[in-house]
Amino acid sequence: MTAPKLMPLAIGLFAVGVLAIIVVFALFLTGHSDLPVALNVAATYLPAIGLGLGIIAVVRKARQKKS
After folding, report:
1. Rg (alpha carbons) of the chain, rounded to whole number
2. Residue 67, pLDDT above cutoff 70
3. Tens digits of per-residue pLDDT, 21-54?
4. DSSP string computed for 2-50
5. Are 13 and 50 in contact (CB under 8 A)?
6. CA-to-CA distance for 33 and 51, rounded, in angstroms?
7. What contacts 20, CB < 8 A, 6 or more positions away?
8. What is the dihedral of CA 45, 19, 51, 8, to 10 degrees?
């Protein structure tokens, strides 16, 4: 996957992960304690995956400009 195609994917994954974190906090504040596993996994891993893919996209784009 090229860097221009990778960046929107990274931004989307990061945004969905941050949204999942917000949902987890909102549900916790309303008294829910037993949250679905999928929501916890999304809140845990999607921001990290999105950030990692974003860093990879930026590095790949910078290397393309040098050559």
Report:
1. 15
2. no
3. 999 999 999 999 899 999 999 999 999 999 999 9
4. -HHHHHHHHHHHHHHHHHHHHHHHHHHHTT--S--HHHHHHHHHHHHHH
5. yes
6. 28
7. 39, 42, 43, 46
8. 120
